[in-house]
């Protein structure tokens, strides 16, 4: 890492502040280690391998590449990126309003098995170069593509870690725990899904991949079931490392949203996984009081946004109340927060914390759906950061030029 950074700096392929950001601190450098986290929501409770890379020599480079490239990716694939459940519901509302949702429309989801650990290393770097060139980049923040590739190769191929007193180097895939792995996997998926995305666009269908759980994909289709399976089979054959697990029907779950095509009518609600237990922050825990208010407010906000009908919202409201009672929230506190939430958003003087009118609920729901969510704000901020100069050397040059101009006057 040190040799590569010194070489790139000597050739002026990276700036001084970039060099300082990426240069590992020898006194803090540590070898990464491997550990496993169970996935209880999956059958058989498989393990997710995590490489703890907090103090690896390449961690600074990984974080730098992630900050450098993720805004570009977010900007150029926004149309096929699902940020969260609210974003998905908005897309489906527009799809329905345009008359594309029919009684015969299929809802489809699929994910890719072990995407992170199956990424082909050199091929992923080729695709990264292709992505940058296709979108007109020869440099990113003054860093040439060739330098980006060299840095990416170092992070991706020199992933050395320890496990049970032995040393290993990962030769396939990227490290789960490395910041740059997410961005590189996203770029790899961009190449893989190109043809499928174009097919969906040509037929006015929905297609989206979650911004964080990048191997989770949702799309709609008005084709016969055998044609959909044929399309996914072709996707399965695109690369030997890609294996799809699909779910196709009139009812599917995606993220935390349950979606149903009820004879051409879109219905949605909050999806609770079978393995999920009704836990939240206990009321008797040592947290600031606003935390308990936020727990209830956030749960109710999600319930309103996700519930397509008043009865669905009322059912979710009861589920929330039972969860809160189970976590020792007092009935009085629950009632006061429910009442506060309803009166603020419904603008009603009703002493009961309930909405009884279907039209009123729909108006409130649409208003809340139109408000950007926190993940949407974060993505917008990342995209906008791509258009703002974050190079101190360039800023310093700009200041000097300004002073020089003023002096001449």
Automatic annotation (TrEMBL):
The beginning of the lineage is:
Eukaryota, Metazoa, Spiralia, Gnathifera, Rotifera
What's the protein here called? Answer: Reverse transcriptase domain-containing protein
Superkingdom is Eukaryota
Renumbered to this chain, region (Disordered) spans: 382-409
| Annotated ranges, domain Reverse transcriptase | 18-300
**Which stretches does UniProt call biased (Polar residues)?**
386-396
């Amino acid at each position: 890492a040190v040799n590569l950074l010194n070489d790139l700096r000597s050739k002026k392929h990276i700036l001084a502040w970039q060099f300082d950001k990426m240069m590992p601190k020898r006194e803090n450098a540590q070898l990464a280690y491997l550990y496993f986290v169970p996935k209880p929501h999956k059958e058989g409770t498989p393990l997710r391998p995590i490489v703890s890379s907090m103090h690896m020599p390449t961690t600074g480079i990984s974080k730098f590449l992630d900050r450098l490239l993720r805004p570009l990716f977010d900007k150029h694939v926004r149309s096929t990126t699902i940020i969260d459940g609210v974003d998905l519901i908005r897309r489906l509302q527009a799809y329905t309003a345009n008359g594309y949702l029919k009684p015969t429309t299929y809802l489809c989801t699929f994910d890719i098995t072990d995407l992170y650990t199956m990424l082909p290393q050199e091929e992923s770097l080729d695709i990264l170069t292709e992505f940058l060139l296709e979108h007109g980049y020869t440099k990113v923040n003054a860093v040439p593509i060739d330098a980006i590739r060299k840095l990416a190769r170092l992070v991706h191929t020199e992933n050395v870690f320890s496990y049970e007193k032995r040393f290993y180097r990962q030769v396939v895939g990227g490290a789960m725990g490395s910041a740059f792995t997410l961005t590189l996997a996203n770029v790899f998926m961009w190449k893989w899904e190109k043809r499928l995305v174009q097919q969906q666009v040509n037929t006015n269908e929905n297609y989206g991949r979650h911004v964080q759980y990048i191997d989770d994909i949702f799309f709609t289709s008005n084709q016969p079931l055998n044609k959909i399976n044929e399309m996914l089979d072709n996707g399965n054959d695109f690369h030997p490392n890609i294996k799809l697990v699909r779910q196709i029907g009139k009812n599917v779950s995606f993220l935390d949203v349950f979606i149903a095509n009820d004879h051409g009518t879109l219905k949605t609600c909050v999806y609770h996984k079978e393995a999920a237990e009704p836990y939240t922050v206990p009321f008797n825990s040592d947290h600031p009081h606003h935390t308990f208010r936020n727990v209830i407010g956030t749960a109710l906000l999600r319930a309103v946004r996700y519930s397509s009908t008043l009865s669905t919202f009322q059912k979710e409201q009861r589920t929330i109340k039972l969860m809160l009672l189970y976590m020792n929230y007092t009935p009085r506190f629950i009632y006061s927060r429910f009442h506060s939430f309803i009166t603020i958003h419904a603008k009603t003087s009703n002493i009961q914390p309930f909405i009884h009118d279907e039209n009123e609920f729909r108006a409130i729901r649409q208003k809340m759906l139109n408000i950007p969510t926190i993940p949407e704000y974060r993505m917008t901020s990342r995209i906008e950061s791509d258009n703002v100069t974050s190079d101190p050397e360039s800023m310093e040059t700009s200041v000097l030029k300004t002073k020089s101009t003023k002096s001449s006057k």
